[in-house]
Amino acid sequence: MKSFYDKFLGIIKNNKILTAILVCSFILSLIYSFHFRIEPVVDARAYDTIATNIINGNGYRENLDRDLAHDYAIARVGPLYQYFLAGIYKIFGHHYEPVWVIQALLHGLSVWLIYLTSLLIFADADYRKKIALWAAAIIGFYPDLIEISAMLLTETLYLFLVCLMLYVFFRFYRQARLGLASVLGIVSGLTVLARPPVLLFIPVIIFYFFRKKNILPAVLFVIVLVMVFAPWTVRNYQVYGSFMPFGAAGNFNFWIGNYHGGNGEQEPTQEQRELTLTHGVKEINGESMRQFKNFLRDYPAEFVKLTVLRINKYFSISRPMGFWFYQTGLGQMSFVLSSALASCFLFILGLGGIINSIILKKETQRQALAYLAIFGLTASLLIFVTVVETRYRFQIYPALAIFAGYFLVYLLANRRWWADKIFWSAIGLVVSNGLLDLFLSSGRFLEKINLFFKS
Known about the structure:
Blueprint: H1 4-14, H2 16-36, H3 43-55, H4 80-92, H5 97-121, H6 128-140, H7 143-148, H8 155-174, H9 178-194, H10 201-211, H11 215-240, H12 249-256, H13 270-278, H14 281-298, H15 300-314, H16 329-357, H17 363-385, H18 397-412, H19 421-440, H20 442-454
Helix pairs in contact: 2-5, 2-6, 3-4, 5-6, 5-8, 6-18, 8-9, 9-11, 10-11, 12-14, 14-15, 16-18, 16-19, 16-20, 17-18
């Protein structure tokens, strides 16, 4: 049986277009990283500090001037990315260049996994290679993903793990094997330790196992999953005396995104900032959930309104990436425009693919795409009720890219593609949602636009 590595070499050797996509996506990521040489700030600086403390023998700490109970490290998203950085620093020293190279590789591997996953989903379709190539190209050349790979943020590692998780699941979907169930448990555990929202993938996977009566694989999957979580969970209980399998970031986000007069985005109030500076992690967790419950009780209609607004913003094409500190003026404007165009392309074609998949005649293919759509939806649910930021939606891009590749191939096979009703329905829905967001947040958008004229 050929190994994964042998298959990789075989497909690369016989597929020049795929090779070009992989090589170019890797090189673009490298060029972007080494050209801008982005210094870590805010979250990136915190991850960098924690990783440095780990390799210096100080443990999983952010601020050594504060006692462990008041140290904010446990409230950061993680811990996987911080240990990932620590491993790189341990081998290569505290230099950012190796991180950029490895993250460029991870970006390229994500492209490769999207290609393979597309082949699995459309295994019985004659046009599966075209779909896989388009999906790979969309992910490989997506401006936001190239940009984020140049930063010390969790997204590149997290997206690689999400892509790997999808690939292993659909491998099992096509050929149920115990070994794949255990690998899926390992990958799922690591993905959740990178960013918790993907935790909601797990009930979907377990549902699939039981629906197909794969009881033993389901049991093995859960056991392996628990084993991955166990060391971090035990460590947190020993240190903080609380059950925190994924850290303490979640509770605080429920409060940041839900308070009277809030907008559902990650903009802490002065009261919330002061709490993080003056109280311990357990107190912050407790107070955050108390405030969230009070908000639900006192302002249920406002919570519903904020949730609807978050959904609107999450899928809005009016919220491109690019408004970062390291760029100004025309350079920043160029990136923002490229990000906006890419999001239009992805969201319109992705939605078109989802709609079109509902009417597919091939049952196995339709079911596979249904699971892909469910994964995309469940990955978003926690964001809908907590806080929304543009980069938080990256986790749905792999699924959307596959749907977009599928719909694009469908359109190109149609001589009158410009008259396709599904295509125009998708345009109408996506553009309308973006315009609604533009109208509701006009002040914020004007503030962003003014940045170009001031620089």
